[in-house]
Amino acid sequence: YTSSLSYFERALEIDPSNVDARYNAALSHLRLGQKWRAQNDLKKSYHHFKRGEEQAKKLIALDEKYPNALR
Q: For the segment 33-45, what is each residue's pLDDT rounded down to a tens digit?
């Protein structure tokens, strides 16, 4: 997950509103045990929602897969 995270972070440097990169960065942080970083990424993704419904479904699925991990 560490190597993929570097790609997502680079994509976010180019476009901080890239919700897909933010979501995948959050998932990578979560799988690396970095809960606080995953939470931060998800908060930022809410701020940058452009395709709200699609992204909301992804975040709900993430929360269902990892209960209480993001709270």
A: 998 888 888 777 7
Structure tokens at 6: 């570097």
One-letter identity of residue 55:
Q
Tell me how far apart the alpha carbons of residues 12 and 26 are, in angstroms, rounded to a whole number. 12
Alpha-carbon distance of 39 to 44, in angstroms, equals: 9
**Residues contacting 56, CB < 8 A, separation 6+:** 49
Cβ–Cβ contacts within 10 Å for residue 13, how many? 10
pTM of this prediction? 0.67
Which stretches does DSSP call E strand in 29-69? none
